[in-house]
Amino acid sequence: MGNWTTLETDVLVVGGGVAGTMAAIPALEAGLKVVICEKGKVLDHCGSVGCGVDHYLTVMDTGPEWDTPEFLIKHVPELTDGIVDMAVASRVIHEMPRIFRKIESFGVDFKDRKTGTYYRLRSFGLPGTYHINFDGTDFKKHLGERVRKGKATVLMRTMVVQLLTQDNRAYGAFAFDFRTGEWYAIRAKAVVLAAGDVNRISRNASGLAFDSWHFPYNTGDAQAMGYRAGAALANMESVEATLTPKGFSTQGLNALVSLGAYFVNKSGERFMFRYDTKGENARRAVLADAVINEYLLGNGPIYLDCRHLPQEMLDRMERTLQVDRYTLPAFYQQKGVNFREELVEISISELSIRRSGVYFRGSGLAVDTNGETSVAGLFAAGDCATVSGGIAGAAVLGHIAGEGVVRRVRGTVGLLPEIDAKAVESVRARAKNHLERREGIGWKQFEDETRRTVTDHVGVRRTDKGLRLALQTLQALAKREPQLKADDLHGLMRVHESVNIRLNAEIMASASLARKETRTGSAHWRLDYPKTDDEHWRKFVIVERGKDGPAVRTLSTDRPLSDAFARDAAVA
User: What is the pLDDT of residue 340?
Assistant: First the structure.
């Protein structure tokens, strides 16, 4: 099982994507020691936008009323159907201009290279042209360079598998390098979870689990570890899907709708205005649900129509669509599709537990206005947290969490607990068992069972009977986890991912069963409760680890999620 190494640091960051690197930066600027653990190979190209990004959402405070934090904040309740932590969302929005300028100072060029100005567009139901369309191929590289300049210790190809906690306080984690087999016990004064959303959790159109719309290596590791450590999660019933070219899950919907593309059904009807007065500029959740409904009505196939767009817009679309997924032009070419001259068939992507197709409401670890969870010293940011907003949300909340970490570390008194040697050996013993098993269940088979269960019984149309059946199946799968086998260290990493995916599916089904209403369309659609019920269900559904599995309770959205934390009392 390799060597054993103990590391001491001020801050441990789990995940080297946008949120993780942005959390590390203020800690490094404050002179703190930072260790980053990342499953990827190269810091500059890991996370959801490792290959690039073509849009960034921000208020810029340029003068017009719509371009102010106050104006956007007024619209957040409507954008999120009232299920949002306004305290955290407001702080994120207020910090947007400052963090945007800071990222520019790192060398990220948000300006259009032809005009030298910001190319701003309106999309996804937002009340202003907040999206900057740009070539962000090197976006992540600049963040990586900033971290390296700060001299953080970066452990690549390293998976964190268990948090260290005592008396509701986080003090580090266990991790292993799945190339060398070396194990780490990392003791830290604060931990930031920034490992992204939950993907590979349902089937998709291509049938290939790793052909996912969002980063397939984001497998709910942060949510699972936080849950096991006693942290509260919220909004886990809300799932997200998007519209993708048929047979190829890819990002790019934002650019398509903001640049003016239409969606039409098999009759050539532009149908989106039947579902929302904003048409194709409706929220992502509305777009996805409309297409699902058109298929259910027998109006499929559904197509993307760009033929009406001016040549200049088509040129821009062609340039930026390959930023998020550089293989997309080759896919179109091999399929013989020319989106300039013909309709392109689209389909619904797989599901992810992310932010339910709306901005400023995330699904994951509940955080306060400093990015801290209900476990003291444990922070979360990005798509694993309850306030999210794409790349900008990850950047801003990541930076907020990093600043919160500085305050927490400076306020830490007393010695950290000693590393629990028995826990260390227990984790390693389980890993060794997976590696030494000659017979058992492969992680692919295990994941496929989870995906089938989620697709068939949780999915985008839910019932009490289906959700209970899903929970029974997922709980039965949990009992088979000791039988999982790994052929090598890389396979051991996949085993841990598959276990985390299954746990997140169980949490999602539990929260979905509890919310007896429909809210935000396909994000949470109960066939047995088809109406939105503000009187009884304008509440957060909170999930925590219970004696016999996920324990569910609710909290009014008139209160911040941090009101549900018992952290301060526990720490005192």
Answer: 80
